[in-house]
Amino acid sequence: MTNNSRRKFIRNLGGTAALLGAGSLAALGKGKEQVHILQPGKPPSSTDNIRLGCIGMGIMGFGDVQTAIKVPGVEFVAAADLYDGHLTKVKELYGDKVFTTRDYRELLNRKDIDAVIIATPDLWHDTIAIAAMEKGKAVYCEKPMVQQIEEGHQVIAAQQRTKAVFQVGSQRVSSVMLAEARKRYQAGEIGQLNIVEARMDRHDALGAWQYSIPPDASPKTIDFDTFLKDTAKVPFDPTRFFRWRNYRAYGTGIPGDLFVHLISGLHFITGSMGPERVYASGNLVQWKDGRDVPDVVVAIFDYPETKQHAAFQMTLRVNFADGGGGGEFTRLIGTDGVMELGWNDFRIKKHKLSAAPGYGGWDTYNTFPKTMQEEYVKQYNAKYTEEQRKPAQVSESSYAAPNGYDDRYDHFVNFFEAMRGGKPIVEDASFGLRAAGPALLTNESYFRKKAIDWDPVKMKIV
């Protein structure tokens, strides 16, 4: 799946803008529609040197490093990975001075490393994150934060105990787009939220995690036993190593890879702590390649009424067998309007009902005798003012980050600024588990074939 395809998926603006980098709006005309270009915030306020290591140099590892070192004052000095070829690639891109190792513990023991990116398969997130914080490192952990719910509580406890800077890598929560979407939502522009629906469908092999396997993959070039961690011991299998998302033992399937992005964004916009009930269904339709996770998943999340929002329902769907070629949308539907989210853009469509119900059309009014129709109109006009009788108010406006904007860059800026000056982290360990928890419950519901009740405050299965 291309980066472009993947990315198409406040009452008090002052404080939020300062935290998230939302700048002033410049309105541009686009036919009858106003497109507001959201400007990124100011450059980092400090350029104090930060030495960075990365554990797990796969797709996300290389991508994260490439973005992180664009932040002024950040230097990439060390990498750990279980495949020798990834470490060779590190040297090719960043030079021989970068320290490389198969053993992440050697990287964590280095005194000259200030922060680490954790971009390993999901089963290793908690172990390495806790070890890193205990070694005094700041941690940027890829999503989902953990593979199992109890692991999330252990990561939260470690962060609270060590006071380490800890950020989860669902980067869109640092975007100027989501900051503006939250502001518009909290200002009541769509009325009372009642339904959220999202779809993220694909129809290509790479999008279904059929990642390329290097020709030199062997027990000599890969530490497969370490990769397995505490899962069942199996003979060397490069498919499991490079396509780990296909297996329950190592990954979190569609919910952990894709649902968690949508849940993170929703929680950021609404201030929600999570659902109270999750039910999921699905199937393995097309990608019968030995994987033991479904390639089609539909999940329903029931969110309870809280001080932050009314009760609402969310439906998420991912289909890797979409013969139409795939597509994405996310819609927050309220009583007065709809917010349609892209990755770094969104649109609000308003349809606010008038106070008067109207008459005629598909209506019993047309069955009245003429004298009764005249009497009805007289009573109707007396009951509703001219203002109340106006038709439904319809409008549309769009907001977008500028071309070339990278929300992952802003997410790393937030991470490094927290290290340098103590600024608040936008996606800490508790936020990470509140987002990962419902995704993990989706898997739980799918495999147990039953609805799962969840306590969103305590973050525990009921």
How would you describe this protein?
The protein has 462 residues and is α/β, with parallel strands linked by helices. It has a domain at 50-171: 3-Layer(aba) Sandwich (Rossmann fold). It is 33% helix and 23% strand. It contains 14 helices and 18 strands. Strands 1-2-16-15-14-13-9-12-11-10-17-18 form a twelve-stranded mixed β-sheet. A six-stranded parallel β-sheet has the order 5-4-3-6-7-8, sandwiched between helices. A hairpin with a 2-residue loop joins strand 13 and strand 14. It is elongated. 42% of the residues are buried. Mean pLDDT is 92; it is low at 1-31.
What is the structure about, briefly put?
By secondary structure, this protein is of the alpha/beta class. The protein has helices at 3-7, 13-20, 59-68, 84-94, 104-108, 125-134, 149-162, 176-186, 224-228, 238-242, 253-270, 370-383, 407-421, 429-448, and strands at residues 25-30, 33-38, 50-55, 74-80, 99-101, 115-118, 138-141, 166-168, 193-201, 277-283, 296-303, 312-319, 327-334, 337-341, 345-352, 393-400, 452-455, 460-461.
